[in-house]
Amino acid sequence: MHSRISDSTASAALPGSTGHAPLRESASNGLKIVIVGGFGVGKTTMVKSVSEIRPLSTEETMTQAGVGIDDASFVQDKTTTTVAFDFGRISLDEQMVLYLFGAPGQERFWFLWDRLFSGTLGAVVLVDTNRLADSWYALDRLEHHGTPFIVARNNFTEPEHSLEDVREALDLSPDVPMIDCDARKRDSSKAVLVALARHLYSLSTGAA
Amino acid sequence: MIRGPLDKEGPDRLYTVTGGRSRADESRFDMVTLIVSESDPTPGMQSEHVKILRMCRRPLSVVEISSYLELPVSVVKILLCDLLDTGRITARHPQPARPGGRLPGPETLKKVLVALQNL
Question: How far apart are the CA of B2 and the nearest CA of chain A, in angstroms?
């Protein structure tokens, strides 16, 4: 069973044992943000750097053909697939708990979004300048769904291009915030989430 | 990313866990619905139900329960339906984030922003 748990979470602690931070008794409102991007771009690294728990991994079963349709039965193994995703958690206040989900952004995984990530506050599209094409499909779908998002460029090395060049290459609308980050660093990942939250707040007040 | 125990184990075990049910009214739970135990396990109770009741003495989200039990979210939701129907747990549902495709109110988003800034 451990094969689906990523290396960093292979010994995920059960509640009550070492490493588990229980939620407050008053926690009552779960919120969701999705971090989407291509393979290896740093989604789980970002979750790990800001999560109050060690990132966990879980999976969902569904049929590719009939997602959202009643016959999505996991006993029909020939038509069922499993999708694994990593997530972390941030307690925001006495009531609000924010869950961060790292999700693959490629076309073949998008079927997972409608079912699992409906109701997300917004999304962070994590991009690697060397592989911008990995982000196109996710950007297209986010715009189509009307899900608010920002673009964060993860710089494991010094960037060669300006953010404006990246904006142009991605054909991003001017009102989509962009930010540089280093997903390995907590403060940097935090700044990305703050940028998204500021964008969402602006949208809600009509200031954007 | 597509990998998992189902491929190796076959569905039999999961079928057993849920007593043969392949689906329930899963829409009763979101992935981030918080579950709280309202009773202690009783003798003879199915082991997965026992584990859920024990781990939810403090609030715990559906997706965390799924991860700790190493069972898919959809299977966990079926187990949670059993417990909810018999009053052994309560569920704290998320406020709909975007009713009608809209964002939550500015007050909520302001709280989120300030809390993240204060991390």
Answer: 5
Asked whether A61 and A73 are in contact (CB, 8 A), the reply is no
The pLDDT assigned to A184 comes to 95
Q: H or E element: which one contains B78? A: helix B73-85
Asked whether the beta carbons of residue B72 and residue A59 sit closer than 8 angstroms, the reply is yes
Phi, psi of A92 (to 5 degrees): -90, -40
Using a cut of 0.80, tell me whether the model's pTM lies above it.
yes
Looking at residue B84, what is its pLDDT? Answer: 95
B37–A contact, CB cutoff 8 A: no
| Spatial distance between the Cα atoms of B71 and A49, rounded to a whole number of angstroms | 25
Tokens for A203? 């949208």
Q: What is the pLDDT of residues A84-135, one digit of tens each?
A: 889 999 999 999 999 999 987 777 777 667 766 788 999 999 998 888 888 8
Residue B73: list chain A partners with CB under 8 A: 58-60, 116
Q: Mean pLDDT across the stretch A173-193?
A: 96
Residues 6+ apart with CB under 8 A from A163: A153, A178, A179, A180
The residue in chain B having the minimum alpha-carbon distance to the alpha carbon of residue A14 is B68
Q: What is the pLDDT of residues B59-95, one digit of tens each?
A: 999 999 999 999 999 899 999 999 999 999 999 998 7
Interface test with A, best of B3, B31, B111 (most A CBs within 10 A): B31
Residue of B7, B12, B102, B109 to mutate for A, most A C-beta atoms under 10 A? B109
Question: d(Cα B29, Cα B94) in Å, to the nearest integer?
Answer: 9
Instruction: Let me know how long chain A is.
Output: 208
